[in-house]
Design brief:
two-stranded antiparallel ribbon; 257 residues; mainly alpha
C-alpha cells in the first residue's frame, strides 16, 4: 500500500463510526481529572484522578495497540473494551517501551556525567561559549538517540502486533530487518506525514484549549484520541506491506464493526 492510500485510509478511519471511539474518549477524559482536582484543590477529585490514571495506564496502551493490529490487517473494525485483552496488551506495550528506552536512559546519564558536568564547570568559570557548546552537543546527542529508539519502538510494536510475541518484538536486529524491508524512504515519508500531522495538531490544539471551560476537556478527551487512532492505525497499514499472512493472530470477535 502506497503512502497516499495509507494517509487517506488513516484519516477516514476514526470517522467511519466515531461512536465506537467513545471508550477511547472516556479513557482520555479520565486523566484530565487530576489537573482539574489540582486547579480546584479538591482532594476527592484528586483521589478519583489517581484511580483514573491507573485505569488509563492499564487500558489505554492496549486499546491504542489494537489500532495497530487493525491497520496491519487492513480492516475497518474498531477495538472492543475487552478488559482482559486490553490490560494484557497494555502490560506488554509498557514492557516493550521500558526495554527500548534503556539505551536512551543510559546515554542520558553518560552524557550528563561528562558533557553536562563539564558545561556547568564552564559556566562557573564564565566560559559561556564552552558552556553553550557542551549543552547544545548534549541535547543533540540525546535527541538523536531518543528519536532513533522511538522509531525502533514504533516498528517493534508493529512486530508485536503481527507475531503476538514480546520476545520477537524485543529482537532489535529483527526490527531493523523489518525496517529495511519496508524501506527507509517509505519510512521517512511516513515520518514526515506524522510530523506534519503533529505540527497541524499543535496549531489546532492551541485554538481548542483557548475555549473557556470546555477547551481542555475537548482537547484531552476527543482531539488527542482521534490523533492517536490515526497514528497507530497508519503504523499498522505501513507494516502490512511486509506481512505475508494478515490473518495470523487475528480474531474479529475482539472488534466492533
Amino acid at each position: 500500500m502506497d503512502l497516499g492510500k495509507i494517509i487517506s485510509k488513516s484519516f477516514s478511519y476514526p470517522f467511519r463510526n466515531i461512536k465506537n471511539l467513545l471508550v477511547l474518549f472516556i479513557l482520555f477524559i479520565l486523566i484530565s481529572v487530576i489537573p482539574i482536582g489540582v486547579i480546584y484543590d479538591n482532594k476527592y477529585l484528586l483521589a478519583l484522578g489517581v484511580i483514573s490514571f491507573f485505569l488509563f495506564i492499564l487500558l489505554a496502551p492496549g486499546y491504542l495497540f489494537s489500532f495497530v493490529k487493525i491497520g496491519l490487517n487492513e480492516s475497518a473494525l474498531f477495538p472492543s473494551l475487552s478488559f482482559g485483552n486490553r490490560i494484557y496488551d497494555s502490560l506488554r506495550v509498557l514492557v516493550l517501551r521500558m526495554a527500548y528506552m534503556i539505551v536512551p536512559t543510559l546515554v542520558f546519564f553518560i552524557v550528563w556525567s561528562t558533557l553536562g558536568v563539564s558545561g556547568i564547570n564552564s559556566l562557573s568559570n564564565m566560559e559561556i561559549h564552552t558552556f553553550l557548546w557542551n549543552i547544545g552537543l548534549s541535547l543533540v546527542i540525546l535527541l538523536v538517540i531518543y528519536l532513533l529508539f522511538e522509531i525502533l519502538l514504533f516498528f517493534a510494536k508493529a512486530r508485536l502486533a503481527y507475531l503476538n510475541s514480546l520476545s520477537e518484538a524485543l529482537k532489535v536486529n529483527m526490527v531493523i530487518g523489518d525496517i529495511r524491508k519496508i524501506g527507509i524512504f517509505n519510512i521517512v515519508k511516513w515520518l514526515v506525514f506524522m510530523g506534519v500531522l503533529v505540527i497541524v495538531a499543535s496549531v489546532v490544539s492551541g485554538w481548542i484549549i483557548a475555549i473557556p471551560y470546555v477547551g481542555f476537556i475537548v482537547y484531552i478527551g476527543i482531539f488527542i484520541p482521534i490523533l492517536e487512532s490515526i497514528g497507530n492505525y497508519s503504523l499498522g497499514l505501513l507494516y502490512s506491506n511486509i506481512v505475508d499472512d494478515k490473518s495470523l493472530n487475528w480474531s474479529e470477535t475482539e472488534y466492533l464493526p
